Amino acid sequence: MRIGELARRTDVSPRLLRYYEEQGLLRPVRRPSGYREYRVADVERVRRIRTLLAAGLNTTTIAEVLPCTVDTGNGLAAACPDLLTDLHRERDRITTAITELRSARTMLDTIIQATPR
């Protein structure tokens, strides 16, 4: 299928699909005409990419973990034992970011409350 069809099936823009290709997340076949040709399996691959992005992973990390994920029917799971270490590291990074954002929000609330109306 061509990029427009993949975009329609995944609700992801062609521009974003090209970006995923640049990042090594998608590997379409290039036809002699230069057109990209995607496989049916790429629909599921894009869905996995979107799930991992929603989980807070960047595309570099996704490129590493994507081959080691499986769909359990209830979501993605790690298929490679070593992957859990990477996922825990990413979870810790996200937890730290949440803590820092909460602190920033508290400081901002203090400034807002101290400001005369």
TrEMBL record:
Official protein name in the record: DNA-binding transcriptional regulator, MerR family
Matching CDD domains: HTH_MerR-like_sg3 (cd01282)
Gene3D superfamilies found in the cross-reference section: 1.10.1660.10
Keyword presence, Signal: no
GO molecular function, one term: DNA binding
Protein source organism: Amycolatopsis marina
Keywords: DNA-binding, Repressor, Transcription, Transcription regulation
Residue ranges annotated for the HTH merR-type domain, each copy included: 1-68
InterPro entries found in the cross-reference section: DNA-bd_dom_put_sf, MerR-type_HTH_dom, MerR_fam
SUPFAM superfamilies: Putative DNA-binding domain
Pfam families, A to Z: MerR_1
